[in-house]
Amino acid sequence: MDMNVKPKPVAQTALERVIQRPSREEAEAAVRTLIAWAGDNPNREGLIDTPRRVVDSYREFYSGYDEDAAKILETTFSEVGGYDDIVLVRDIPFNSHCEHHMVPFVGKAHIAYLPHDGVVGLSKLARVTDVFAKRLQTQENLTAQIIEAINEAINPRGAAVMLEAEHMCMSMRGVRKHGSSTITHRFTGVLAEDRQEQDRFFALIRAGR
Ligand SMILES: [Zn+2]
């Protein structure tokens, strides 16, 4: 037997993830441990219900793990009066948590695409942003995941995603630089190939400000 053959990694199914998810009690116990680690008494009056509230908050902060972007973008509309020019939704607010420190990063997403066979409801772009934002993230990955979901679902001639966000792990700890923002963007299709289309995207984001 060849000992150099590595076993193939087994893909984790959604079901296995659910089974491995700890119980609510275990999650609350972990929060009590962190409170004690911070130096406080998890049994004092003001903190006694905190683990329950933190676990509830986590359900909300990380609700994106239980959602499917493809489902949200499933319905497209083709009767748009022949409209095939750029569709841009700008200033979509989002909040996420950085996967390195589990502290928030908060900002706005600007999402655009050039329709091919249809358009999606405008609110769907905001919902897709949340599906990925409500997970442990890096801003770079969040940008990529949003644009990939749009490409897969509606096959546009091109797409663009730009995120601007302030990272609390930079404002509250480490270098403590308050007010700095991080900008990421990603283009695909026509928007990746054509500088003029990119310029138009940036101009539309600034328009009327
Ligand atoms: Zn961080």
From TrEMBL:
Q: Which GO terms describe its molecular function?
A: GTP binding; GTP cyclohydrolase I activity; zinc ion binding
Stored Gene3D superfamilies: 1.10.286.10, 3.30.1130.10
Carries keyword tRNA processing? Answer: no
Which reaction is recorded as catalysed by this protein? GTP + H2O = 7,8-dihydroneopterin 3'-triphosphate + formate + H(+)
At the top level, the lineage of the source is Bacteria
PROSITE patterns, from UniProt?
Answer: GTP_CYCLOHYDROL_1_1, GTP_CYCLOHYDROL_1_2
GO CC annotation terms, alphabetical? cytoplasm
| Ranges where the GTP cyclohydrolase I domain occurs | 28-206
**UniProt pathway:** Cofactor biosynthesis; 7,8-dihydroneopterin triphosphate biosynthesis; 7,8-dihydroneopterin triphosphate from GTP: step 1/1
**Keywords attached to this entry:** GTP-binding, Hydrolase, Metal-binding, Nucleotide-binding, One-carbon metabolism, Zinc
Entry annotated with the keyword Metal-binding: yes
Q: What is its EC number?
A: 3.5.4.16
Sites binding Zn(2+) sit at C98, H101, C169
> In this record, what's one Pfam family?
GTP_cyclohydroI
Which InterPro entries does the record match to this protein? GTP-CH-I_C/QueF, GTP-CH-I_N, GTP_CycHdrlase_I, GTP_CycHdrlase_I_CS, GTP_CycHdrlase_I_dom
Question: Which biological process, per GO, is one annotated for this protein?
Answer: tetrahydrofolate biosynthetic process
Q: Give the protein family.
A: Belongs to the GTP cyclohydrolase I family.
Q: How does it assemble?
A: Toroid-shaped homodecamer, composed of two pentamers of five dimers.
Protein name, per record = GTP cyclohydrolase 1
Its organism's taxonomic lineage begins at: Bacteria, Pseudomonadati, Pseudomonadota, Alphaproteobacteria, Hyphomicrobiales
* Gene name of this polypeptide: folE
